[in-house]
Amino acid sequence: MKSSWNNEYYDIMNFYYWEPQHLGKIKNPNSKIQSIHDALSHIAKMEVSLNHQFNLFFQLLPSVILNDILNKIDNNYISTDRLSYQSIEDINTLNLNDATQPDVFFKSNKDLVAIEFKLGTKSSIEQIMKYATLFHFTELHHEMEFAHHLIYVGRDNFSTMFKEKFFSIDIVQSAIEMAHIPDTTKKGYVNLIPHKERITKIAKNLHLSFVSYQELYNIFSYFVNYIDASNPFSETIIKLFSGMNNELVFRELVRA
Question: How far is it, in rounded angstroms, from Cα 169 to Cα 166?
């Protein structure tokens, strides 16, 4: 792996592997993972570790560039408003009691944008309804309506993303019904009965899009080449893009 900021993520994991006492833990002598190489190899295959790095990346990325990226992915996203990254703490204020756990979530004055990263696991109608629930409760909390955007990022193409083997976005949304919403959330037991109609409407009308990791890599490479490298303030932005692309290459999700 080339030396870049994403290496620090694995260096941090390395530290806590050797000194788990700082987390109040001890090493498990019966674990299948018996070396730092095994541990880091396992971490590098996990969706959650990729989500961690994308969250760091998007938190540090200037909003104007983030808007440009979203414009390239989602034809329905045309906003120039400043996007605010929504942390776990922000999501907890919605009183959904951990019922929704978005990979990446943004809010502007007009738009709500969620990004779902997939490696080996499949999505489902149920997951779309969870995002629609997140959008709905965000609207309730802020007492206003937004445009809703859900972006899937995957290895190949959209047809490989769903358990139900949907072949197009239109087919997914035509299959959405109110019956897909439970009466209460599985986590936190939030009563959804009064909210089902609005959640269903959001799910059937949200702007759903897909981008492959290779396409995302190409978009990031475009910005690395586009940004004025002679400007001293551009160095950090170039490092951000290069580090994220480095991670995608390291995981063999793309061809450089």
Answer: 8
Number of other CB atoms surrounding residue 244 within 10 Å? 23
Tokens coding 71: 């414009």
Question: How confident is the model over 50-95, as pLDDT tens digits?
Answer: 999 999 999 999 999 999 999 999 988 988 889 999 999 999 999 8
Whole-number pLDDT of residue 29:
74
Average pLDDT for residues 189-217, to the nearest whole number?
A: 96
pTM score over 0.85: yes
Print the SS3 string covering the chain.
Answer: CCCCHHHHHHHHHHHHHHCHHHHCCCCCCCCCCCCHHHHHHHHCCCHHHHHHHHHHHHHHCCHHHHHHHHHHHCCCCCCCCCCEECCHHHHHCCCCCCCCCCCEEEECCCEEEEEEECCCCCECHHHHHHHHHHHHHHHHHHCCCCEEEEEEEECCCHHHCECCCCCCHHHHHHCCCHHHCCCECCCCCCECHHHHHHHHHHHHHCEEEEEEHHHHHHHHHHHHHHCCCCCHHHHHHHHHHHHHHHHHHHCCCCCC
